[in-house]
Amino acid sequence: MRSLNTPVGGLTLAGTFVMRSALTANLLWIGALKFKRYEVENIEPLVTASPLLAWFRRRLGANNLARLIGITEITLGSLISAKPLAPRASAAGSFGAATMFLITLSFLISTPGARQEGEGVWSPSLVGQFLVKDSVLLGASLVTAADALRGVNNP
């Protein structure tokens, strides 16, 4: 890794800090929203169409599944933010978030209406555009995992 005393090293450090902070804030905020009725309704078409989550929806119900997702997001965000104190836990949170974002990206395939009909495979609708941003969050999760693992190996 480049020295942090160089402009590139300082930019890397700043970018990683902003990425970790933003990823944490997104997970905590969106996780907290899962306890609101409108968010339960917003995710309903996504989870019922998902082969991975439809079973949980049937078993737990809409409200409980939303709460479980919210608790998961809040937990992962909290773990990611713990990097200065617990880099291993932070790495685990980042890998958990990466898994979660892979699942939400699968909604692009499973959710009816995620693509503009008649416009081709790569033409997302508003729902699809909402989901595709998770590719950036997936990348952020992988970067924060790598950063946390560097902290484990070089305390």
UniProtKB/TrEMBL annotation:
This is Membrane protein. One of its GO terms (biological process) is response to hypochlorite. The chain crosses the membrane at residues 12-33. Keywords: Membrane, Transmembrane, Transmembrane helix. The keyword Transcription does not apply. The keyword Iron-sulfur does not apply. It comes from the Bacteria. It comes from Rugosimonospora africana. GO terms for cellular component: plasma membrane.
